[in-house]
Design brief:
TIM Barrel; 8 strands; alpha/beta
Length: about 290
């Protein structure tokens, strides 16, 4: 489960359901998972209606588990058309159908929240993470292939990905920027978003329909830091350093996220942002990813 963040509005609270209660704090729960039966059984709609689920994201690993975990995709895998396609072609037939169906299920949320929630993410190939031009071409192709207003194309926040992110946003795509760990990386992504909006405004183009999230990873920071602490303690440290190292265990990731959120408030609270907001733009929300593993 991931959550997207906006500025809190306590008046939005709904009932006593813990997940729905997150809405009162400006948090929109997303599901980091997709599988065919989740879409066809009505279970996803139940999560939306009963638990306040507001979005969904996917990646190649998620699809791999869904495809290899049973016979849910046998109709495509065993079809005559699939036999004429390479592995990537078959994958895209599966992924496009699932993402399109998920987008359709989330469409009421997208409409009711005035395009603030209700998005489903599909990731560009990870093999293109260091190729700007190929990433742009892939993102545009996926956007057109899914052909849903509430799809988000996921692009990694690599140095090569940044110009692709800016270009795709300027082209009018919804973009989910993934694999952000550092505050400096987040600032670069936010700058790409703001610059893209400003470019569209300058050309007289609409910005009200463009949505973006910056996926900032949390728990993996603690995993790295805590392992480093263990290594240092095992190697031996001065007596005065041991309590300090122990005090950092399990604390760095949240501190990093809080400082990043503070930067979000600064970036989307000043005059520069107000100029874009006056044209109907919505903030690029922070998505807290990898919050438990």
């Amino acid at each position: 489960m991931t959550t997207t963040t906006t500025l809190p509005n306590i008046a939005r609270g709904e009932g006593t359901n813990p997940l729905k209660g997150l809405l009162a704090h400006g948090q929109s729960p997303w599901m980091d998972y997709v599988r065919r039966d989740l879409l066809t059984s009505g279970q996803l709609k139940k999560y939306i209606d009963n638990d306040g689920l507001r979005g969904m994201t996917s990646n190649p690993t998620i699809f791999e588990k869904a495809i290899t975990g049973g016979n849910l995709y046998a109709d495509i895998l065993n079809s005559p058309e699939a036999k004429k396609l390479d592995a990537n072609g078959v994958f895209e037939k599966i992924a496009f159908r699932d993402i399109q169906d998920a987008c359709d299920i989330f469409k009421p949320v997208y409409t009711e929240t005035n395009r603030r929630d209700g998005y489903v993410s599909l990731e560009v190939s990870p093999f293109l993470g260091y190729d700007t031009k190929a990433t742009i071409a892939e993102a545009l192709r996926l956007w057109k292939g899914v052909n849903r207003p509430n799809v988000m194309i996921k692009i990694p926040g690599t140095p090569e990905g940044l110009p692709a992110i800016r270009q795709c946003l300027e082209e009018g795509l919804n973009i989910n920027i993934t694999l952000l760990f550092a505050q400096s990386a987040y600032e670069q992504v936010a700058e790409a978003f703001l610059s893209a909006l400003e470019a569209r405004v300058k050309k007289g183009q609409d910005v009200s329909h463009i949505a973006s999230v910056a996926s900032f990873f949390v728990s993996r920071i603690d995993t790295l830091v805590d392992n480093t602490i263990d290594e240092k303690l095992k190697a031996g440290v001065d007596a005065g350093q041991e309590p300090l190292l122990e005090s950092l265990r399990g604390k760095v990731a949240i501190a990093n996220a809080r400082l990043t959120y503070k930067k979000y408030q600064e970036l989307f609270g000043g005059r520069r942002w107000e100029a874009a907001a006056s044209k109907g733009a919505q903030t690029q929300r922070l998505l807290w990813a990898s919050t438990g593993t």
